[in-house]
Amino acid sequence: MNLLRSPGTVGSLAVLLLAGCTVGPNYHRPSAATAPSWKENVVPPPNPPNGTWKEAEPSDAVLRGNWWDMYGDPELSSLEAKVSVSNQTLRAAMEQYLQATEQVRVARSEYYPTLAAGPSVSRTSNATNTPTSVPGVSKYQYSLRAELASDYFEMRGMDSQKQLLDNTVKSYEDYLKLTEIRYRGGVATEADVALAQTQLETTQAQDIDVGVARAQYEHAIATLIGVPASDFGLPPMPLGSDIPQIPVGVPSQLLERRPDIAASEREIDAANAQIGIAIAAYYPSIFLNGQGGFLSGTAGTWIQGPSAMWSLGASATELLFDAGRRHAFTQQARDAYEQQVANYRQTVLSAFEDVEDNLAALRILDQESVAQAQAVSSAENSLRINTSLYKEGATTYLTVLTAQTVLLSNQRTQEDVATRQFVASVQLIRALGGGWNTSQLPKL
C-alpha cells in the first residue's frame, strides 16, 4: 500500500494552544532607593579665574545624544563621530547586544508550542547553562566615548603644559643671558651663571618629558577611533578655558539614563521569565498526532474519493512524582530573580555614588582653581620683586632661582587643575549616562 500525508489539520488545531500558555509572574521593575535631590550643590560655581563657565541655554536643560558638542570643540566632535563606525570594541559590544536580543526572543518563544514539519506539537525548555543563555547587555557604548573625551582633554592638558614650559624655557634663556652679562660686568658671580644654566637645562628636560604622556594619550585616541597609532596624529592645541555647565537633572532620572542600570533591569526581566519557564513544568504535556491523504492498493485509484483517509489523535501526560525536582527548579528561579533584584539595587546605589563623587570633584576643583590662581599671582609678584632686587645688586641669583622654581611649580599645578576640571566634567556626564536613555533600547 502507498500513503500520502497532509499536515493541515494538525497545524490548525495547534493554534488553539497559543492563546493562554504564558505562565509565571507578570514583570514589574523593582523599586530602588532614590533621593529627591543631589547632595552636592549643582548651582553653577563662580567664574574660574582662568576662564568662564558657559551659561546653559533653555534647550540645553537635558543631556542629549552628542553631549561632547557642549564643549564647542570641533576636533573632539570629529573624533567622537569616528568611534561608532571604527571602534572594534564598540562594534563587538553592539553585536553582542544584538545577539542577546535574539536569545531573549528564543527564551520567550519557549512559552509557546512549536509546529514541526512532521507534523507534531511540542514544548521545550533549554537549560540556562547552555550557549543560548542570555548574556548581560554590554556597557561599553557610552564609556568608550567618555574615555575618548577624557584622553583628549588629558592630551590637550599636556599641550598646555608644553606651552607653559616652552615659554618658561625662553624666559630662563633671557635670565641666563642677563646673568652672563652681569658676570662679565663683574657684578655677578660664576656661581650665579651656573645656577641659571642649571635651571634652564632642568626645565628643558621637563619640557621634553611632557612629550611622553602626550604621545601615549594620542595613541590611546587612535585606538579608540579604530586606526593604527602609527598613522594618526593631532596637532598641539592647549586646553581652552570654557567648561560647560552640565545639566544634571534630578536623581530619579538616573534610572532612565544609565546603561548599566538598564542592563541590570533587563537581567531581572530575564530572570522573571525563567520563573515562568520553571512553573510551566507543572502543566501537562499535550501531544497531537494526525495524518491524512489517500490510501489504495492500486495506483490508478489513489486520488478517488473512496481512497481518502484521515486519522487524528491526541494524548496528554502529566508528571505525578518527581521527588521535589520541579519545586526545586522553580525555587531556584525565584532565588535567581531575587539575586538580580539585589544586583540592580546595588547598581543604582553605585550610580548615585558615581554622580556625587564627580559633583564633589567639580566643586572642590573649582575652589582649588581659585586658590591656585592666587598662588600663581603671588609667585609672579615675588619673582618680579626678586628680579628687580637682583638687577640692583641687592640680592643673589639664588633668591631669583627660588622664586622661579616656586612660580613654575604653581603654574604647572594650575594647568593640572584645569585639566582635571575638564576630565571631571566628562566623568560627570559619563556618570549621568551621557545623552543615553532607555528609550534607545531596541524593542524585543
Kindly list the characteristics that best describe this protein.
444 residues, single chain, elongated, Outer membrane efflux proteins (OEP), three-stranded antiparallel beta sheet, two-stranded parallel sheet, disordered N terminus, 7 strands
Short overview:
With 444 residues, the protein is mainly alpha-helical.
Report on this model:
The chain has 444 residues and is mostly helical. It is built from nine helices and seven strands, in the order E-H-E-H-H-E-E-H-H-E-H-H-E-E-H-H. It has a three-stranded antiparallel sheet, with helices on one face. Strands 2-5 form a two-stranded parallel sheet. Strands 3-4 form a two-stranded antiparallel sheet. A hairpin with a 3-residue loop joins strand 3 and strand 4.
CATH fold name of the domain at 66-107 and 138-282 and 324-440, please? Outer membrane efflux proteins (OEP)
CATH class descriptor name of the domain at 66-107 and 138-282 and 324-440: Mainly Alpha
> From N to C, what is the helix and strand string?
EHEHHEEHHEHHEEHH
Largest sheet: 3 strands, antiparallel
Terminal-residue CA separation? 50 Å
Mean pLDDT value: 76
Backbone CA Rg? 36 Å
Helix content: 55-70%
Strand content: 5-15%
Query: Tell me, what's the shape?
Result: elongated
Write out the strand line-up for the largest beta sheet, numbering strands in chain order: 1-6-7
Q: In DSSP terms, counting alpha (H) and pi (I) runs of 4 or more, how many helices?
A: 9
